[in-house]
Design goal:
mainly alpha
Length: 86
């Protein structure tokens, strides 16, 4: 454990940021799973609605540096093509 006050605060800040980052990444992964379930059930309208939310959260994760832009683009392209081919 740190002895210096600023180091103690830095530890708290890092823990809070780490938790927020995990939540954002988990949200992206959960949206992918939700879209996959909707595609499997054949609900195209609902899948396109959730896809819009997914795009927004994916771009947010890229801007925060949580996932790489190429990874986000690849995921968006794969899911959009699955929705189009329904």
């Amino acid at each position: 454990m740190a002895n210096i006050k600023s180091s103690k605060k830095a530890i708290k800040v890092i823990a809070k940021k780490t938790e927020n980052n995990h939540e954002t990444k988990a949200q992206v992964k959960n949206l992918i799973k939700d879209i996959e379930k909707l595609i499997a059930s054949g609900d195209k309208e609902k899948a396109t609605e959730v896809f819009k939310v997914f795009q927004k959260s994916c771009d947010s994760a890229v801007s925060k540096g949580l996932i790489k832009s190429n990874t986000a683009d690849r995921q968006k392209k794969r899911i959009s093509s699955k929705i189009k081919n329904m």
